[in-house]
Amino acid sequence: MTDALNAILVIVLVMNLFVLGTSRILAVINTVATQGALLGVIPLLVHTHLTISVVLTSVAAIVLKGVVIPSIMIRALRDAEIKREVEPLIGLLPSIMLGALATAFALLFAGELPLAGEHQSALLVPTSIASVLVGFIILTSRFKALSQVIGYLVLENGIFIFGMLLIDAMPLLVEMGVLLDLFVGIFVICIIVNHINRAFSSLDTRLLASLKE
Amino acid sequence: MLSLWMVLAAVAILALSGAPAYLLASHSKAGQRISTILMLIGSVVGLLGIARKISGVETPSLQFEWQIPWGQFDVSIDSISVIFLAIVFVAPVLGSIYGLSYWKSSEHPENSRRLGLFFGLLAGSMAMVTIARDGVLFLIAWEAMAISAYFASTVEEDSAEVRRAGYVYLVATHVGTLCLFAMFALWRHSTGSFELSASASSFSITGEMAGAIFILTIIGFGFKAGLMPLHVWLPGAHANAPSHVSAVMSGVMLKMGIYGIVRMTSLLVRPEIWWGSSLLIVGAITGVAGIAFAIGQHDLKRLLAYSSIENIGIIAIGLGLALLGKSQNRPDWVVLGFGAALLHVWNHSLFKSLLFLSAGSIIHAGHTREIDKLGGLAKKMPRLAILFAIGSIAICALPPFNGFASEWLLYIGLFRTLSPDSGVEGLPVIASVSVALAMIGALAVACFVKLFGTVFLGTPRSEATLHAHEPPKSMLLPIALLGAGCAFIGIFPSIVSPALESAAGEWAPSSASKVSISEVAPLRWISIMGGSLICLAGAIALILKALPRASVAIEAGTWDCGYARPAPRMQYTGSSFGGSIVDLFAFILRPEAKKPSIEGAFAKPSSHKSSVPDTVLDKLVLPIFRMAGRYLPALRVMQQGKTQIYVLYILIILIVLLLLETMGA
Fold it and tell me: Between these two residues, B443 and A163, which has the higher pLDDT value?
């Protein structure tokens, strides 16, 4: 079971790097969607006996992250008619390098943590930290509003993985609440994307600085 | 238990009394009347509630858990709460009745509903402050009080002066609340809960911790009460608020600061000597400086506001004496100091509300707050003049009114510390405090002679005062009721003394119950003296009335050094009257004057201008804020307006924390 889990997590890590190194927004959205759907499978693997709450979490995560959210984003991408490249602040290659560094740091750091026995062997904690850091890197180094949403999604995926450690302790309500927040957040951002586009004729968030006091 | 429910109902009715007006048109009279009627109902229910509590023996309390993190809903009425609830249920409702004609909704449609809403909320939250027994609940009520006072006092926000005063108030009150946050945090740290009761755990607070809590209490509540030098917000906010709001702020809200000090010192069961002595010194400084600033003011309401600071100083002296008595185990000091302080809380709320409401009527008549532009009002509004005189005599602590009773108790208490067996070191300090108290009294007389003389005597100095007339009944009635209260307590202090004694017993259970006020202070003599003084005054008045006098008043110019056209403006002004005292205190008052100068053979028109600005605010606080305004904007580099940068900040902090944690492990 741990092997299957670790395999998924390694794929997630690779996808993180792929997201950092790809220039086409559409490809990035698809990658993040696949990542989200893959993560939705994890609850089924972590738990040997399936309860309704686990299945519900899993199904909700797969539907939301794999289907609903990507389709909203693709729609926003189409409506805004922006150039379909990510336009990063730092180059794609340096981004990958940074991501790799972050992943290495996460692996080292997780080794230092005093974890419970059953979490020692799995890659859950390092993957989670690495995804959070990669999410941050995307958030800070991309200028387009949609790329920011992607950074936010990757960040949330990291938190979702960390939540797997606690799935026994955490009520279903909390998990559902987080998913709902994510959905509403992205729904709203995608509407805002359109408005930014109309107001500034661009999706470059740097232009928002002109709104500051 | 019923009494507590009645007080809670009163809190709710008062707090919501302004809301129904929002259902009606903004200029409708009915809305304002409904608010006042609700205030009246709430206050009567509350007063009945505390009457029931006084007649019973139990201390009603109510606790239940609630959803707000930390703390619980915990309320109770003890004898200390009763003292402060009494003023909350008296002054605001009278202010509201006064407001019916002072702040007519037909004349102020743009803000009368807002004023009514926050006026009621202010009253309700103050009542809540006095019954809250949980730190978090207390802070919620405290903040509600501070904010509603802000909105009530800044209704005329289109004036820059009002906005400035409101801003200073807002900053000052929040700095105070910040100290209270720290204080309650320490309290929770040392007792394990936010519960404000003298439970077993509060005995375990160590000396240093108790000292720290005491200092934070004095600073935090001192901001609200107006202890010098924390009074900076007070003159501006009082001067610029509508008069009935000033009356409630000065008469009741400042006392909530006093209440906080009383409550916390009752919970800190083992006071040390320096607590009492430092409060005595702070009180003396506040009193003397407050009244000295008052004499220098040209603005009627600023003068009254500084006089409130002076009275807070007197109350602080009383509390200081009581704390000293608690630490030295001297029940007579406790009972006299505490009794004097709480009686003065009542008295000040009566006569200062009276004076502020009268000031409102004067301003209505004269269209100005400048003392030196008023004059001769005694002939135009004789009833108001008599009531104002009663308030002035009371605030100067002269018999037969209530101010005398409380300050007299304080004098007896201070003199008792001077006997050789008192056994306290640093006696000269306490002795000088009694001298300071005497000085405060004398200066107060000078201050109110100046005020009354300039405003009511002489001849009118302006067109508006020439055509002034008596205020309507709904404005005179609340003032008259307050005056009656002043006279009642002044003549029968023995009727209120049991309430003071039981509060003192609650405050210092170990010592105070042994002595009653009437044992150490012959209250009966106050009644006899006050009664005979009133009889004497009445007799003189009757005799004067019976004496024959000219039926026609003859008006003629005074001897005018040969100058043929004396004008009202040539009358002796209040500023000249106070000038000599202002010069004496120039070292703290720092008066500013622009003197007229004569140049050349043919002198050009020149002018004279003098003012006494607030030294602490103008010379200390504002320069600090200006410095901050000059240098702190350098930090705006951090605020770039780019979300990426903000996220980067979070990322950097996250990584630093992770690294720290790793190294720590």
Answer: B443
Residue A205 lies in a domain: yes
B193-213 confidence digits (pLDDT tens): 888 877 655 667 777 888 999
A62-111: pLDDT as tens digits? 898 888 888 888 888 887 766 666 667 788 888 899 899 999 988 888 87
Interatomic CA distance for residues B5 and B48, integer angstroms: 11
Mean pLDDT of chain B: 87
User: DSSP state, B638?
Assistant: G
Strand partners, B36: none
* Distance from C-alpha of B429 to C-alpha of B224, rounded to nearest angstrom: 26
Cα separation, B243 vs A130, whole angstroms: 64
Select the highest-mean-pLDDT range: A142-151, A182-191, B445-454, B558-567: B445-454
Q: Under a CB-based contact definition with an 8 Å cutoff, are residues B191 and B201 in contact?
A: yes
Rounded CA-CA distance B166/B333 in Å is 39
Number of domains in chain A: 1
- Percent of chain A as helix, strand, coil, to the nearest 5: 80, 5, 15
Whether pLDDT at B639 is above 80: no
Would you call B423 helix, strand, or coil by DSSP? coil
Interface test with A, best of B636, B646, B647, B654 (most A CBs within 10 A): B647
The total of other beta-carbon atoms located within 10 Å of residue A200's CB is 15
DSSP helix/strand/coil, B424: coil
Q: Which residues of B touch A140 (CB under 8 A)?
A: 644-645, 647-648, 651
Spatial CB neighbours of B262, under 8 Å, sequence gap ≥ 6: B80, B319, B341, B342, B507
Q: d(Cα B374, Cα B451) in Å, to the nearest integer?
A: 10
Task: State pTM to two decimals.
Answer: 0.80
pLDDT at A120: 64
Please report whether residue A96 resides in a domain: yes
Integer Cα distance of B369 and B380 in angstroms: 17
Task: Report yes or no: B503 and B80 within 8 Å, Cβ to Cβ.
Answer: yes
Q: How far apart are CA A46 and CA A103, in angstroms?
A: 22
Kindly provide the b/e burial profile for residues B589-617, where b requires at least 16 CB atoms within 10 angstroms of the residue's own CB: bebeeeeeeeeeeeeeeeeeeeebbbbbb
**For residue A166, what are the domain limits?**
2-110+120-211
Residue B74 has phi, psi (to 5 degrees) of -140, 110
In a domain, A115, yes or no: no
Q: Which residue has the tokens 């006299």?
A: B336
Q: How many CB pairs under 8 A join A and B?
A: 46
Residue A35 identity: Q
Contacts of B637 in chain A (CB under 8 A): none
Q: Is residue A163 part of a domain?
A: yes
CA B359 to each of CA B155, B354, B385: distance values in angstroms, whole numbers, following the listed order? 18, 8, 11
Give the three-class secondary structure for B229.
coil
- Give which of B638, B639, B640, B643 to mutate to test A binding, by max A Cβ within 10 Å: B643
Nearest CA to B617 out of B134, B239, B271 is that of B239
Does ipTM surpass 0.85 in this model?
no
Rounded to 5°, angle at Cα B482 from B481 and B483: 90
Q: Which of A79, A83, A69 is nearest to A29 (CA)?
A: A69
What whole-number distance in Å separates Cα of residue A164 and Cα of residue A177? 15
Q: Does A211 sit within 8 Å of B644, measured CB to CB?
A: no
Tokens coding B617: 């605010």
Question: What is the bridge-based pairing of β-strands B61-64 and B73-76?
Answer: antiparallel
